[in-house]
Amino acid sequence: MYDAITDVAGIEVGQVQDVDSLTGCTVVLCRGGAVVGVDVRGSAPGTRETDLCRPATLVERAQAILLTGGSAFGLDAAGGVVRYLYENGLGFDTGIIKVPIVPGAVIFDLGIGKPVWPDGAMGYRAASQAAGGPVAQGCVGAGTGATVGKLQGLAWAVKSGIGTASERIADITVGAIVAVNAMGDVLASNGQVLAGGRGNDTDETKPPAMNTTIGVVATDAQLDPERAQYLAVSGQTGLARTIRPVHTLYDGDTLFALATGRGPAPDPLLLGTAAARAVERAVRAAVLNATPLGGLPALG
User: Fold this and answer.
1) pLDDT grade, residue 200 (50/70/90)?
2) Based on the structure, what is the number of domains in the chain?
3) pLDDT for 201
4) Do the beta carbons of residue 175 and residue 232 sit within 8 Å?
5) Is residue 99 within a helix (H) or strand (E), and if so which, with residue range?
6) Within a 10 A sphere around the Cβ of 131, how many other Cβ atoms?
């Protein structure tokens, strides 16, 4: 066990970053496909194919999820992931051609580093590097330009990144990977601020529109689309426990869910509890593994 989303059988992760421009992307790949769900909160999301991830749609399975920096520009990276999957014969079989299904979401990291964003070539590289095993955390992949604690502006923020964790409950594994780019602070398990804004209480509040936390919750459980959506909803509880404030006007917090179906069908309550816990731990891992970049300090 790696205490990572890759502890879920069939889930692979690939990450590529530009450490000069402080941006990057992360691909969560399931070559056999996985039942997909999504939950979007906050008022500023940047997403791709989230409608397809909801129940009552024709296509129920995805082959990969893209997490990327670059705001809406970064969605270009999905084209590279699609190309990689197509070249490897993976996708929804239409009877004419296999169409890779790659939902995705973005963070706004253009306020740190250079105004550069992931493109198709970066997405392709991330997908081609996807593998099981240990997953790099901190300022890598979609977390390269992530920051937290921006209620008083980016100048007072703290560096964040991407984190991952897994939970084992009965015969089921649940894992999460989260790129934490919140306007709010990240809290420790005791409710105290673990990583947050460095301004004084008297400083003016001026939240920038350059936030959003995105991630994937995966399980080997057998889930239908409705339960996959519930898994994503449950994961948002982990964000609410660790980020204050969360789901704001300036965040577009988005969690995807993937169910590979290799294990038994679990009790939904137990599964939701494990999902929230995995996300909670992944969020804290993102700031604990971050390093100073872009002139901002970090805990790591």
Assistant:
1) confident
2) 1
3) 64
4) no
5) strand 98-99
6) 12
